[in-house]
Amino acid sequence: MSSTIRFVNWMPESVTPVLNQSMLSDLKTSTAAHSYFPYSMSVPRQPDQPPSAGVWGNTNNLVVKSGGKSQIYNNLTEPENSAPNQELILWVFPDFVIFSQFEKQLGEKVFPG
Questions:
Q1: At the top level of its lineage, which domain of life is listed (predicted)?
Q2: Do 77 and 67 meet the contact criterion of CB atoms below 8 Å apart?
Q3: How many beta carbons lie within 10 A of that of residue 39, not counting itself?
Q4: Under 8 Å CB-to-CB from 46, ≥6 apart: which residues?
Q5: pLDDT confidence of 32, banded at 50, 70, 90?
Q6: d(Cα 68, Cα 66) in Å, to the nearest integer?
């Protein structure tokens, strides 16, 4: 099964995600001109497969680069109770990330490390 994972930028500055050693496009920060609607992007998601460059797999490494700093999230896995054939959302905040699906948070905050 496959779907997508959407990265949503809730940081005060632009971010550059690196998923499984593949640098993705920059995600701009939201602005008043756009009613603070967050920027996002989707990438392929194959939760039943080993990860590959730029594709979300069963265990992933994510680096979030922003403002000259990098937050490293090693061994990110699919959240419990996620539906593999529906889009998964990863909210990127300044000090952590959160997964959601079907307008419901999946699991707790995930901190770098």
A1: Bacteria
A2: no
A3: 19
A4: 1, 2, 55, 56, 57
A5: low
A6: 6
What are the structure tokens assigned to 93, written together? Answer: 């905040």
Structure confidence by residue, pLDDT tens digits, 47-73: 999 989 999 999 999 999 998 999 999
The dihedral through the CA atoms of 62, 86, 26, 31 has a sign that is negative
Distance CA(42)–CA(8), nearest Å, equals 9
Contacts of 33 (CB under 8 A, 6+ apart): none
Calculated CA dihedral for residues 98, 21, 23, 108, nearest 10 degrees: 0
Residue 59: beta bridge partners?
77
Measured torsion, CA atoms of residues 74, 79, 13, 31, in degrees rounded to the nearest 10: 170
Owner of token pair 């701009």: 28
Distance CA 104, CA 95 (A): 20
Q: Has residue 12 got a pLDDT over 80?
A: yes
